[in-house]
Design a protein that fits this description.
single chain, about 180 residues, alpha/beta, globular, disordered N terminus
Length: about 180
């Protein structure tokens, strides 16, 4: 039995799993990788305004987004604003969470196919967090979250973060499996 605990603690992010109390910390914000969307990146003919050209949520991803939102609401957690990347898989995730009014935030858009924008795409969300007067939920992409926090996230994983000067501190992680 002891070896299972050791194995669990060695898993990436295991010590942060489902840390709801982290959301109560002063300055805490939630940033989430979109729910399950099979594949990697987007097709070559990708168009931002055309969901049929993008990698999208599947039924498991939709169920995951709904389950995550339900877990937050069961704990009485909603947000004054939910900001999302303009990619369809992020927007659909944000809508299905049903945790507050959803607004597009181009600064949360993926830079997976154009890494030259990584610095600006990381600085803008940091500024959004710094300017926020209340906790918010942000729905974005793994590449954006990794650049901002240094942490790899799984589909549907929510990191609870706050700014510590110019650095982003990870306070906890929440992952609800579909």
């Amino acid at each position: 039995m002891r070896w299972l605990l050791v194995l669990f603690l060695l898993l990436p992010g295991a010590a942060l799993a489902n840390d709801w109390d982290a959301l109560k910390e002063p300055g805490a914000m939630a940033i989430m990788r979109h729910a399950l969307a099979p594949g990697t990146g987007d097709p070559a003919a990708f168009e931002l305004g055309n969901c049929s050209t993008q990698r999208n949520l599947d039924e498991q991803g939709r169920a995951q987004a709904r389950a995550i939102g339900a877990a937050f609401r069961e704990r009485g957690i909603t947000f004054e604003q939910v900001l999302t990347s303009q990619w369809c898989r992020c927007r659909e995730t944000a809508d299905l969470l049903d945790l507050g009014p959803v607004s597009d935030a181009p600064s949360l858009n993926s830079f997976f196919q154009d890494r030259s924008t990584s610095v600006s795409q990381t600085d803008r969300p940091r500024a959004l967090i710094a300017e926020a007067s209340e906790p918010m939920m942000m729905v974005t992409h793994q590449v954006n979250i990794s650049a901002l926090t240094g942490q790899f996230t799984r589909s549907g994983e929510v990191l609870v973060i706050r700014l510590d000067g110019d650095d982003v501190e990870i306070l906890g992680s929440i992952l609800i499996e579909p």
